[in-house]
Amino acid sequence: MKLIKFLCAGCAAMLLISVVLLLSQRNSYETEISVLKVSKQTNALREEIKDKPKMDFVVEEEIQEPSFSVQLKYNSYPMTFTYLVCEHEGVNIRTLPSIDAKILRKSQKWEKLQYIETITLFNHKEENNNVTEEKWYHVYWYENDDKKIVPDGSGTIDQNGDGAMLKRVFGFVSADTVSKRFFDFDQMEEKIKQLEKEESEGNLTYVRNYKNYHGKPPLCEGKEIDEGGTPRSQSAPGYLSASKDSKFIYIPDGTLIKSLERSNGFWHIALVQNGKEYYIPEKYIAKQEALKVLSKIIIIDRKNQNIACFEKNQGIWQMVSYSLVTTGTTNRYAQPTPLGFYFIIEKRPQFYYIKDGTNEIQGYAPYTLRFCGGAYLHGVSATYRWENGNRIDPGLREFSSSIGTVPLSHKCVRNYTSHAKFLYDWYTKDETVVAVIEP
Questions:
Q1: Secondary element (H or E) of residue 49
Q2: If I label 274, which of 81, 165, 177, 202 is the partner at 20 to 30 A Cα–Cα?
Q3: Cβ of 264: how many Cβ atoms within 10 Å?
Q4: Is the pLDDT of residue 427 over 90?
Q5: CB 18 within 8 Å of CB 11
Q6: Which helix (H) or strand (E) holds 415?
Q7: Are strands 296-301 and 306-313 parallel, antiparallel or unpaired?
Q8: Do 296 and 277 form a contact (C-beta atoms < 8 A)?
Q9: Is the per-residue pLDDT at 50 higher than 90?
Q10: What are the Cα distances from residue 263, in Å, to 218, 287, 322?
Q11: Beta strands in 229-360 (DSSP E)
């Protein structure tokens, strides 16, 4: 939703009405924002420019709200549906949207700021009739009594365990200094509708070739990767006809498919993602109807680095959690989390991971759900340390400041550990799928 109010330096009454209207239309997740605090700061801006007759400003609300029911079962890191990521340390957070305003503090690297509204300043220059624009974001965050910043803007995490009250603090950041992110509920709703339609037609199953158990597919035109960038390992060959002499692509382990019919040792299938049809050798296909019923959907947004989970309750889809994640990057030892629809194949309390370039176990990731090859949803990894030749388990870690920032994992989807545990407990076998999107 985008709510726009044009405000000039002399429009005090309209300013106050606009701020009240803006806040009255917010979803319940933001109802605690102080109208008095917001109007006070925006009125301070009016005072700031009242002697500058050639300057105006516009206030916009740029928040996409879900059209479906929100019944949260996990709420450890409550966030505004639009939020800001400080990708660099030292972003100036000011008292007003002006480079001349006092600096309240400088941000931490990877800090998340909660979004209230966008303010655009227009400076009309008489000498050349030009108009310059300056965009700012009105934000807030939480601090404890010692003015320590609470991670990722959460107002419910009690870091010290002493029940101390947290204070919401307001400020402004230049739009040029932060990355604006949001939960793309429109895209998510489209994917839910698409999955629901495919499920209604039946026969949904998945590709299986974890650790190449059913054999590596042949090289694709002599290469380990197909023209779409999908790697050979842990994939099945998807032929254009029921013949191994025809052209093919690689279809990753876990990919959700619709089985159409058997044909000469192949299954004729259609990808749920885009409806394209291929022929896959039978050994790479799980049982014909692996998805018994579609009751739970996990949607991962690679662009915004966030996640939302949905559950069907009495025929109605409800959002039960939304949070931040970190997806796969690209380097010698890593690959992007693949786009598409996937079946959650297995659930494990943890998996071990090895140090890059070695066979040495470096640590483990807790509360894991595997959905594509070696790609898991999991919590923050725990790295072993060594003392006197003994391997020491450091225990579970809840938080990493890099979650929700940029792709950094090897392929997996890294969550706050509490959210990974929620997913682990919430998951229902043969009823849960994953959608990885990139709007």
A1: helix 35-49
A2: 81
A3: 10
A4: yes
A5: no
A6: strand 413-415
A7: antiparallel
A8: no
A9: no
A10: 20, 16, 42
A11: 235-239, 248-252, 256-263, 266-271, 277-281, 296-301, 306-313, 316-326, 340-343, 346-354
Domains of the chain are 2-65+81-182 (no CATH), 203-284 (2.30.30.40), 296-437 (2.40.440.10)
* Secondary structure tally for the chain: helices H, strands E: 4, 28
Which residue is listed with tokens 């109208």? 35
C-alpha distances out from residue 339 to 143, 188, 299, 371, Å: 37, 13, 11, 12
- The Cα 177–Cα 139 span in angstroms is 13
Chain-centroid distance, C-alpha 394: 27
Six-digit token string for 42: 């925006």
Q: Considering only the C-alpha atoms of the chain, give the largest distance between any 2 of them, rounded to a whole number of Å.
A: 82
Of 6-20, 102-116, 251-265, 294-308, the least confident: 6-20
With 0-12 / 13-18 / 19 or more C-beta atoms within 10 angstroms meaning exposed / middle / buried, residue 104 is middle
Q: Are 202 and 289 in contact (CB under 8 A)?
A: yes
User: Which residues fall within 8 angstroms of residue 319, CB to CB, at 6 or more apart?
Assistant: 66, 68, 69, 70, 71, 72, 308, 309, 310
Q: What is the DSSP letter of 404?
A: T
Beta strand pairing call for 306-313 and 316-326: antiparallel
Q: What are the tokens at 275?
A: 């409806």
- Whole-model pTM: value is 0.88
Q: Tokens for 47?
A: 């005072």
Q: Which residues are registered as beta bridge partners of 235? A: 252
Count the Cβ atoms, other than its own, within 10 Å of residue 25. 13
Looking up tokens 């990919």 gives 255
Q: What does the pLDDT look like over 226-266, one tens digit per residue?
A: 999 999 999 999 999 999 999 999 999 999 999 999 988 99
Task: Please name the residues in contact with 106: beta carbons below 8 A apart, sequence gap of 6 or more.
Answer: 89, 90, 91, 92, 93
How far out from the chain centre does Cα 46 lie?
A: 36
End-to-end CA distance of the chain: 17
Pairing of the two strands 266-271 and 277-281: antiparallel
